[in-house]
Amino acid sequence: MRGDAPSLPARAASWRAVALVWVGIGLTAAGLAGFGAYTTLTGRERALATAGATAQNLARVLENHTQRSVDAVELLLRLVAASGEHREAALPGPDRFDPVLAEVLRERGYVAATSVLCAETGRRVFGHGPPRQIAGDLDLDAFRAHRKAGASVRVGKPFFDADTGHWSAAVSRVYPRSASKGAPLLAVAHVDLSQLQRFYASIDVGRGGSIVLWRADGLLLTRAPYNGAHIGRVYPGAALFKELARAPNGLYRAASATDGTRRIVAYRQLPGTDLVTVAALSEEDSLTAWAAEMRSTLAILALVLLALVAFGALVAREMRRRAEAEARATQKSALLEATLETMDQGLLMVDQETTVQVCNRRAQELLELPAELLARRPSFDEVIRYQFARDEFAKQDTSFRDWVESGGFEQTHHVYERERPNGTVLEVRTVPFAGGGAVRTYTDITARKRAEKRISHIARHDALTDLPNRVFFRERLEQALAGMRRRGDGVALLCLDLDHFKGVNDTLGHPIGDALLKAVAQRIRAELREEDTVARLGGDEFAILQNGTGQPAAGAALAHRLVASLGQPYLLEGHPINVGASIGIAVVTEAAGDADTLLRNADLALYRAKEDGRGTYRFFEPAMDAAVQARRSLELDLREALVRGEFVLHYQPFVDLLRGEVVGFEALVRWNHPTRGLISPAEFVPVAEETRLIVPLGDWILRQACQDAVGWPDGIRVAVNISAAQFRGEGLGAGVLSALAQAGLAPERLELEITETVLMQNTEASLKALHRLRGAGVRIAMDDFGTGYSSLSYLRSFPFDKIKIDRSFVRELTHNAECRAIVRAITSLGQSLSISTIAEGVETREQLDAVRAEGCTEVQGYLFSPPVPIEEARRLAPRRRARAA
Ligand code: C2E
Ligand code: CA
Ligand code: CA
Predict the structure, then answer these.
(1) Which residue has its alpha carbon closest to ligand 1 atom 42?
(2) N or C: which end of the chain has fewer CB within 10 A?
(3) Residue 783: CB within 6 Å of ligand 1?
(4) How far is the CA of 617 from the centre of ligand 3 (A)?
(5) Is the Cβ atom of 680 under 6 angstroms away from ligand 1?
(6) pLDDT tens, 722-750?
(7) What are the residues whose beta carbons fall under 8 Å from the beta carbon of 875, sequence distance 6 or more?
(8) Low-confidence residues of the chain, pLDDT below 50?
(9) Reported pTM
């Protein structure tokens, strides 16, 4: 699992939990909001109802007060009317006004004037008060009104008295009289409305509230708060009048006809009058308290909601966290389980009581534990008992088995490898828990082990023959030497080298060469005991390590067997192949000798075996070591010798058997060493060849020989030996021709002696150079024929002028019929191809007779003359006849 980002199901679970929380909070909030709305609405209604009740009470108070005022005025009117009735009989005139009534009127103060009229005619019976008012339109107005409305008290249209600055209105009533006493009388009082006005104004109706006295037909009589513009005007369309048409008293809510304010209006019509008192409270004002309360309620609600939301958010977060953690935990354990079941490692876990708590599928497979066993939660002991019963630890040693039997779980971190009976290798790793118990893993490392083995095998073995290689061999050798010191026996080291292997490789190709090496390895192994070791050191070089007592006889016996066995012909892909083996042996029987010395000594012995004609074995002798040292110093001196002119040429004559005279000399180089005297070419030429010094040395020899030969009588040839190594450079042909030219020697007088090796190496280039020289007239001789491969095919591959039969043949000729047959075959081949044949190394008369009998055309050897310095050769050449003649 990567990081701690929850997976999809974990997220879904957490969202479900969070959604639940939010739904809960939403429901609570909705409930609260509903409750808020409910209290708001009912509160409003309650506030409005309270305001309505207040308005109605006010209206009632107003009604009472107004009624009392009307009653008082009516009483006055009645007195005025009665007074008028009396006066009608007496004298009319203002001064006749009842003095008591006049006193009352003055005392009341709000009645400015009164009049009494005939209700039918409108004739004034009398008047009291300022004349301007008595004669005014008020009376007329009252009179007209009463003709329509009958006997109740009437209030007329208010008028503004500029003198007093007050509004007044005419209040009138008709008083019927018995028919005998005359027509009904109309009493009119001019009432100052300001008292009423003041009373109204004294009542607190709040902001926007009002108190109005209406006449039922829509005439506004007075009003608080005071507004002169409205008084006396008619508003018949006002909502009040629709209500009034329905009931004389009532309560309603409407927008004001005068100022548009919404009000709660209570009205009452004064019984028996057309007056209506109205108390109106502004809705807004009435709701102020409610609104304030509402605001605080809402604020509290909002706070509560906010707190709820915050709480919800917290809870949601916490729940989400928990849900996610839980989901993660579930997921993790599911993952863990899946991992346990699919992992490539076996895993077994025991608790403190060493009960097996976990054993995954892989562990069951790897250990082959039955499911039934594990199903009952066995103790680890039970598992071990089961394993012992199945012989699980058969491949382990007893100490391991003892350890397992004693419990096998240690309170330490440890790893071991164990091979199961079926060959599987397990790596068992145990990690103990701090509080007891442990977890153990089983890894199948069979493949790894096999690969490791394979790699270490490859690193220590030769790929071709699968024999141990040099590295491995050295290890074995060192072990053997160490063991030998302990055991006190001996060690023989055999270095073996195939003879002529290179020829097989060159002529038959590498696949056959490889097959030959495998066959050789097989034959060597067949000759060895189990405890001996054979290694291929490289190329055709093998080494054998022989342990045990009985040295050096045992080493010699083994070498003898090997030479014999390897010398047998091989048949590979239809090619019969003959190679032999040369063996060098170094033996240690005492505490002396390290691996390096032993190897070098065996190598020296091998060198000697090869020198001694191959197909044999030699033991190392300390003298060989000295020879090697000498050779090394020779190598160093050789470089200086050419510069210092220490080389000289000796000449050995060769004789034509038919003519019986010397026909030429072979130039043979000698090294005139300042301390060692004359050194044989057999000793230094191979070294010169190895160090490539042969190239400048050969060039010097060639030029020297040509120069020397120029001084000899005509027809006397000079033969010069050419090493195979001299052919490697391009310039041999050119070098020879330039030497001839420089000396002024005819090419026909120069004979070059080459060996088979020249033709075996870089054939094409060599043949080209040889053809070029032969084309120029130089004679080419095949030297040392009969040694090496002596393949007749080489004779056919180039038109040689001469074959030199090797002196080893000449030596054997007199007592070896086979040799004789070979020599005869060569001479007859020479005759058929018109190649002259020369026998070298003729030392005795018998030998001379034999070679003559076999058909050789020329001879060379000590019988006639050894190689001699140039001065002597000159004497030998022209004058002295060969002894044969
Ligand atoms: P090689 O070419 O076979 O030379 C003949 C060798 O046989 C000479 O040895 C000679 O002294 C020896 N010999 C001659 N007659 C007899 C005899 O009757 N009996 C015996 N036992 N030996 C006889 P040398 O001079 O020591 O040369 C040895 C080899 O050194 C030569 O064998 C040749 O391969 C090489 N060599 C000598 N001189 C030169 C040279 O100038 N150039 C090169 N490349 N090789 C040379
Ligand atoms: Ca020679
Ligand atoms: Ca020779």
Answers:
(1) 721
(2) N
(3) yes
(4) 26
(5) yes
(6) 998 888 766 788 899 999 999 999 999 99
(7) none
(8) 1-4, 91-92, 94-95, 880-885
(9) 0.42
